[in-house]
Design a protein that fits this description.
The chain has 3 helices and 7 strands. The chain has 148 residues and is of the alpha+beta class. It has one domain.
Length: 148
């Protein structure tokens, strides 16, 4: 019984490691398992842009918004602007991407999340249908419901 349980556990773990993908941003290159899939540009601490390899077109822009209240963080959010799809996703859920004091690591988490949700494929191309599903799942429509 114990050997069967141990064999099942090792099988499950091996599948998890097999399907795990390593995403690294280095020298403005987004690498997936060592292969470059996108170009990245850090504009400032709160903004990143991602470009295709094929034609150098900007497909995604990430922007951190403090909602004009820098000392109050409860209303902070981020915007993912899928430029070629003309789609914006605004969310306050930083658990998927935030990595304090290292924006590059946060962007690596963002790319992993987009790969997991199949918004970006392993060649760095956007999937239009998955972008819309992603928007339905995660968009909180913050600017529309904020009084100014």
């Amino acid at each position: 019984m114990t050997t069967k349980l141990l064999a099942l556990l090792s099988l499950i773990l091996s599948f998890n490691f097999y399907f795990a993908q390593e995403v690294v941003i280095k020298d403005d290159k987004v690498l997936l398992d060592g292969k470059q899939i996108l170009k990245a540009e850090k504009i400032n601490v709160a903004q990143y842009s991602f470009y295709t390899m094929k034609d150098d077109e900007e497909i995604l822009m990430y922007r951190y918004m403090d909602n004009e209240t820098p000392r109050y963080q409860e209303d902070d959010y981020y915007v993912l602007n899928f430029l070629t799809e003309k789609t914006k996703v605004e969310s306050t859920d930083f658990t998927k991407i935030l990595n304090f004091m290292n924006s590059r690591k946060g962007m690596e988490k963002l790319v992993k999340w987009l790969l997991k949700e199949r918004v970006i494929n392993s060649d760095g191309e956007l999937n239009s249908e998955r972008v819309q599903i992603f928007k339905e799942k995660y968009d909180e429509n913050i600017t529309e419901r904020t009084f100014r």
